[in-house]
Amino acid sequence: MQNATGSLPVAETAARRRSPLRLSYRRQEVVWGYLFMAPTIIGLLVFVFGPAVASIALALFSTNFITQFEFVGLANFGELFADETFWISASNTVVYVIAHVVPTVALGLGFASVLNQQMRGRAFFRTLYFIPVVCPIVSTSLIWSWAYETEFGVFNYFLRSAGLAPIRWLTDSSWALWSIIIWSVWAGLGYPIVLFLAALQGVSRELVEASKIDGASVWSTFRHVTFPAISPATFFIVVLLIVGSFQVFTQTYVMTKGGPGYSTYTMVMYLYTIGWQNFRFGYASAVAVVLFLILSAVTYLQFKVQRHWVHYEHG
């Protein structure tokens, strides 16, 4: 609206002069925001999404990147599903996943429940259980390989002291995979304990005390009060453990190299052998694609099933 002289009011004129300046500030904020995110975005594109797309495309070729680069379509997948070694590695991986995840979750919750109580030395034990997590996998794998040694290992020393026959932990095909699983459970307990402990400390004390006053047993209190409260954390832990277990490689490579025979041969070990020892990168990419599809399917099923046992609080 103009005044009597035909000019705009001073306040409105100043506002119009300031609005382009404010807009430029907003644009600057957006630009700076993208600049700060750029390293992460570039890292994801270069090291995650880019290699993933390239691996999917590479699975359609037969190549060693030097003298051969031939389009073969789905032939790599056909050969893969007909390869007995692949099915052995897949079955070993499934056994490892189940035998690793179940005791890790159970023991993690058990230790966290104990550490959540008022007890002497609680701070010491909370530090002690996390030590294996911060130790390098290769180092602890080597130490456990020595402990598993048939003649001079510490485990067989205790077995002999108890009058029992020694076990060929890593050289017997019936024991090798289970020996690696025992190591993996020991080495991987730290994170589940931390997460379970944080979840348990968030359980409402009022509800627990109310259930005790109503005469509920310890098991009933855990089942109907504690576990529903920590079920989101439990679901998160299970998903992480399953995804990580399907990708087991380092400990099997260091401790057994996949042996004896193929008793500890896993899918990632199979992928590594095909790609970096046989230099069949297209075929190895097909293995990676199949592993990705398996993980995607398993994770999808977990998210479908979780609605029946995971209880979320809605504020």
Write the layout of secondary structure elements.
Layout: H1 10-58, E1 61-63, E2 69-71, H2 75-81, H3 84-115, H4 122-128, H5 131-134, H6 137-147, H7 154-161, H8 176-188, H9 190-201, H10 205-213, H11 218-246, H12 250-255, H13 267-277, H14 281-305
Antiparallel strand pairs: 1-2
Give a description of the structure.
It is a single chain. With 315 residues, the protein is mostly helical. It folds into 2 domains: 49 residues; 234 residues, Orthogonal Bundle (MetI-like fold), CATH 1.10.3720. Helix content is 71%, strand content 2%. The chain is built from 14 helices and 2 strands; from the N terminus they run αββααααααααααααα. Strands 1-2 form a two-stranded antiparallel sheet. 22% of the residues are buried. The mean pLDDT is 88.
Question: How are strands sequenced across the largest beta sheet?
Answer: 1-2
CATH architecture of the largest domain: Orthogonal Bundle
Give me the strand/helix succession.
Answer: HEEHHHHHHHHHHHHH
Average pLDDT for all residues = 88
